[in-house]
Design goal:
233 residues, elongated, 5 helices, 11 strands, 4-stranded antiparallel β-sheet
Length: 233
Protein backbone atom coordinates (compact mmCIF):
# COMPACT_ATOMS: atom_id res chain seq x y z
CA UNK A 1 0.00 0.00 0.00
CA UNK A 2 2.82 2.41 0.88
CA UNK A 3 4.56 1.70 -2.43
CA UNK A 4 1.36 2.33 -4.40
CA UNK A 5 0.53 5.53 -2.52
CA UNK A 6 4.03 6.97 -2.89
CA UNK A 7 4.06 6.15 -6.60
CA UNK A 8 1.54 9.00 -6.98
CA UNK A 9 3.56 12.21 -7.28
CA UNK A 10 1.09 14.39 -5.38
CA UNK A 11 1.14 12.09 -2.36
CA UNK A 12 4.90 11.53 -2.53
CA UNK A 13 5.53 15.28 -2.66
CA UNK A 14 3.24 15.88 0.31
CA UNK A 15 4.89 13.08 2.28
CA UNK A 16 8.29 14.66 1.59
CA UNK A 17 7.00 18.15 2.48
CA UNK A 18 5.60 17.06 5.84
CA UNK A 19 8.61 14.92 6.74
CA UNK A 20 10.98 17.79 5.98
CA UNK A 21 8.73 20.13 7.99
CA UNK A 22 8.87 17.75 10.97
CA UNK A 23 12.65 17.37 10.76
CA UNK A 24 13.22 21.12 10.50
CA UNK A 25 10.73 22.25 13.12
CA UNK A 26 10.49 19.53 15.74
CA UNK A 27 13.09 16.79 15.45
CA UNK A 28 16.47 18.37 16.05
CA UNK A 29 18.88 18.75 18.94
CA UNK A 30 18.02 22.46 19.27
CA UNK A 31 14.37 21.62 19.87
CA UNK A 32 14.76 18.38 21.80
CA UNK A 33 17.90 18.83 23.89
CA UNK A 34 16.27 21.28 26.35
CA UNK A 35 13.38 18.84 26.83
CA UNK A 36 15.75 15.92 27.24
CA UNK A 37 17.77 17.87 29.83
CA UNK A 38 14.63 18.74 31.82
CA UNK A 39 13.51 15.12 31.90
CA UNK A 40 17.03 13.95 32.82
CA UNK A 41 17.12 16.37 35.76
CA UNK A 42 13.69 15.19 36.88
CA UNK A 43 14.45 11.44 36.84
CA UNK A 44 18.14 11.39 37.90
CA UNK A 45 17.44 11.21 41.68
CA UNK A 46 15.13 8.25 41.13
CA UNK A 47 17.52 6.50 38.74
CA UNK A 48 20.21 6.87 41.40
CA UNK A 49 18.04 5.14 44.02
CA UNK A 50 16.68 2.44 41.68
CA UNK A 51 17.94 -0.94 42.93
CA UNK A 52 17.01 -2.59 39.63
CA UNK A 53 19.09 -0.23 37.48
CA UNK A 54 22.46 -2.02 38.02
CA UNK A 55 20.85 -5.30 36.88
CA UNK A 56 20.63 -3.89 33.34
CA UNK A 57 24.11 -4.59 31.90
CA UNK A 58 25.62 -3.57 35.24
CA UNK A 59 25.37 0.10 34.32
CA UNK A 60 26.19 2.59 37.03
CA UNK A 61 24.61 5.96 37.67
CA UNK A 62 27.60 7.43 35.80
CA UNK A 63 26.67 5.30 32.79
CA UNK A 64 23.10 6.56 33.11
CA UNK A 65 24.33 10.16 33.07
CA UNK A 66 26.77 9.58 30.20
CA UNK A 67 24.15 7.85 28.08
CA UNK A 68 22.67 11.20 27.11
CA UNK A 69 25.83 12.19 25.25
CA UNK A 70 27.95 9.03 24.81
CA UNK A 71 27.67 5.54 23.38
CA UNK A 72 27.74 2.85 26.07
CA UNK A 73 28.49 -0.19 23.93
CA UNK A 74 26.29 -3.27 23.57
CA UNK A 75 23.09 -2.17 21.84
CA UNK A 76 23.55 1.49 22.83
CA UNK A 77 25.58 2.75 19.87
CA UNK A 78 24.80 6.43 20.33
CA UNK A 79 24.18 8.80 23.17
CA UNK A 80 20.64 10.15 23.08
CA UNK A 81 21.54 13.64 21.82
CA UNK A 82 24.03 12.41 19.15
CA UNK A 83 21.41 9.89 18.05
CA UNK A 84 18.90 12.69 17.41
CA UNK A 85 21.48 14.69 15.44
CA UNK A 86 22.58 11.68 13.37
CA UNK A 87 19.04 10.43 12.76
CA UNK A 88 17.90 13.85 11.56
CA UNK A 89 20.89 14.23 9.22
CA UNK A 90 20.34 10.76 7.74
CA UNK A 91 16.63 11.40 7.18
CA UNK A 92 17.24 14.77 5.51
CA UNK A 93 19.89 13.25 3.24
CA UNK A 94 17.36 10.72 1.94
CA UNK A 95 14.60 13.21 1.16
CA UNK A 96 13.96 14.20 -2.43
CA UNK A 97 14.07 17.85 -3.49
CA UNK A 98 10.49 18.83 -4.28
CA UNK A 99 8.42 21.98 -4.56
CA UNK A 100 5.01 20.87 -3.40
CA UNK A 101 1.82 22.34 -4.80
CA UNK A 102 -0.21 24.11 -2.08
CA UNK A 103 -1.95 21.72 0.32
CA UNK A 104 -5.51 22.68 1.27
CA UNK A 105 -6.78 21.02 4.43
CA UNK A 106 -9.54 21.38 7.00
CA UNK A 107 -11.74 23.17 4.45
CA UNK A 108 -15.18 23.86 5.85
CA UNK A 109 -18.16 26.19 5.69
CA UNK A 110 -20.74 27.29 8.19
CA UNK A 111 -24.25 28.23 7.10
CA UNK A 112 -27.47 28.29 9.09
CA UNK A 113 -29.90 30.45 7.16
CA UNK A 114 -29.99 32.40 3.91
CA UNK A 115 -30.54 35.47 6.12
CA UNK A 116 -27.15 35.05 7.80
CA UNK A 117 -23.60 35.33 6.42
CA UNK A 118 -21.88 32.15 5.24
CA UNK A 119 -18.42 31.56 6.70
CA UNK A 120 -15.65 29.70 4.88
CA UNK A 121 -12.29 28.62 6.30
CA UNK A 122 -9.33 26.39 5.44
CA UNK A 123 -5.64 25.82 6.04
CA UNK A 124 -3.09 26.10 3.24
CA UNK A 125 0.47 24.83 3.53
CA UNK A 126 3.34 25.34 1.10
CA UNK A 127 7.01 26.26 0.96
CA UNK A 128 5.76 29.79 0.25
CA UNK A 129 4.93 31.70 3.41
CA UNK A 130 1.58 32.94 2.08
CA UNK A 131 0.10 31.17 -0.93
CA UNK A 132 -3.10 32.71 -2.29
CA UNK A 133 -6.42 31.05 -1.50
CA UNK A 134 -9.48 31.88 -3.61
CA UNK A 135 -13.12 31.06 -3.03
CA UNK A 136 -15.12 30.42 -6.22
CA UNK A 137 -18.86 30.50 -5.67
CA UNK A 138 -22.11 30.48 -7.60
CA UNK A 139 -25.57 31.40 -6.32
CA UNK A 140 -28.58 29.53 -7.71
CA UNK A 141 -26.70 28.24 -10.76
CA UNK A 142 -25.35 31.63 -11.82
CA UNK A 143 -21.86 32.45 -13.02
CA UNK A 144 -19.00 31.76 -10.61
CA UNK A 145 -17.45 34.68 -8.76
CA UNK A 146 -14.01 34.45 -7.17
CA UNK A 147 -12.74 36.24 -4.08
CA UNK A 148 -9.35 36.15 -2.39
CA UNK A 149 -9.72 34.67 1.10
CA UNK A 150 -8.03 36.54 3.96
CA UNK A 151 -5.20 34.94 5.91
CA UNK A 152 -5.15 35.53 9.66
CA UNK A 153 -2.12 35.58 12.00
CA UNK A 154 -3.08 32.11 13.23
CA UNK A 155 -2.43 30.78 9.71
CA UNK A 156 -6.12 30.12 9.07
CA UNK A 157 -7.70 31.47 5.89
CA UNK A 158 -11.27 32.62 6.47
CA UNK A 159 -13.89 34.90 4.96
CA UNK A 160 -17.65 35.38 4.76
CA UNK A 161 -20.26 35.88 2.08
CA UNK A 162 -23.14 38.28 2.64
CA UNK A 163 -26.57 36.77 3.34
CA UNK A 164 -28.64 35.79 0.31
CA UNK A 165 -31.54 38.00 -0.68
CA UNK A 166 -33.85 34.97 -0.81
CA UNK A 167 -33.73 31.22 -0.17
CA UNK A 168 -31.43 29.40 -2.57
CA UNK A 169 -28.33 27.27 -3.10
CA UNK A 170 -24.66 28.17 -3.10
CA UNK A 171 -22.05 26.07 -4.91
CA UNK A 172 -18.38 26.61 -4.24
CA UNK A 173 -14.83 25.30 -4.50
CA UNK A 174 -11.42 26.55 -3.36
CA UNK A 175 -8.14 27.01 -5.22
CA UNK A 176 -4.71 27.68 -3.73
CA UNK A 177 -1.82 29.04 -5.81
CA UNK A 178 1.83 29.54 -4.89
CA UNK A 179 4.49 31.88 -6.32
CA UNK A 180 5.42 29.32 -8.99
CA UNK A 181 1.81 29.23 -10.16
CA UNK A 182 1.25 25.69 -8.89
CA UNK A 183 -2.42 25.30 -8.08
CA UNK A 184 -4.51 22.92 -6.00
CA UNK A 185 -8.30 22.59 -6.08
CA UNK A 186 -10.56 21.51 -3.23
CA UNK A 187 -12.54 19.41 -3.89
CA UNK A 188 -10.44 17.86 -6.66
CA UNK A 189 -13.53 17.60 -8.90
CA UNK A 190 -17.05 18.97 -8.71
CA UNK A 191 -18.36 21.56 -6.27
CA UNK A 192 -19.71 21.67 -2.73
CA UNK A 193 -23.37 22.65 -2.45
CA UNK A 194 -24.91 24.58 0.44
CA UNK A 195 -28.69 24.30 0.43
CA UNK A 196 -30.28 27.38 1.97
CA UNK A 197 -33.61 26.96 0.24
CA UNK A 198 -35.48 27.05 3.55
CA UNK A 199 -35.08 29.36 6.53
CA UNK A 200 -33.85 27.50 9.59
CA UNK A 201 -36.23 27.99 12.49
CA UNK A 202 -35.89 27.09 16.11
CA UNK A 203 -35.11 28.41 19.53
CA UNK A 204 -31.78 29.20 21.16
CA UNK A 205 -28.86 26.90 20.28
CA UNK A 206 -25.34 26.43 21.59
CA UNK A 207 -23.63 26.94 18.27
CA UNK A 208 -19.91 26.68 19.04
CA UNK A 209 -17.80 26.11 22.13
CA UNK A 210 -14.06 26.55 22.51
CA UNK A 211 -12.35 25.49 25.74
CA UNK A 212 -8.65 25.76 26.51
CA UNK A 213 -8.33 28.49 23.89
CA UNK A 214 -4.66 29.25 24.51
CA UNK A 215 -3.67 30.31 20.98
CA UNK A 216 -6.35 29.43 18.42
CA UNK A 217 -8.67 32.44 18.20
CA UNK A 218 -8.15 35.85 19.76
CA UNK A 219 -11.04 38.13 20.76
CA UNK A 220 -11.33 41.84 19.95
CA UNK A 221 -8.99 42.65 22.85
CA UNK A 222 -6.34 40.28 21.51
CA UNK A 223 -6.90 37.83 24.38
CA UNK A 224 -7.36 34.07 24.14
CA UNK A 225 -10.29 33.50 26.46
CA UNK A 226 -12.48 30.42 26.33
CA UNK A 227 -15.79 31.20 24.68
CA UNK A 228 -19.26 29.97 23.77
CA UNK A 229 -21.39 31.15 20.85
CA UNK A 230 -25.18 31.19 20.94
CA UNK A 231 -27.47 31.21 17.91
CA UNK A 232 -31.03 32.47 18.10
CA UNK A 233 -33.00 30.48 15.54
Amino acid sequence: LTKRLLSIKTYRDRYTFYLRQLLNSGFGSAQLEPKVSRIKAMITPYASEDTYRPLDYGWSITDFSNSYTQALGAHVKYGLIPYITTRRAQALAQLETVDVAPIISDARHYAVSYKLPITFSARVEDEDASPTLKLHYSINGGAFTEVVVKKYPTGIYADTLAPLTSPGKVEYYLTATDSKNQQTREPIAGNITIDLSALTTGTLYINEVMANNSKTLADNAGEFDDWIELYNG
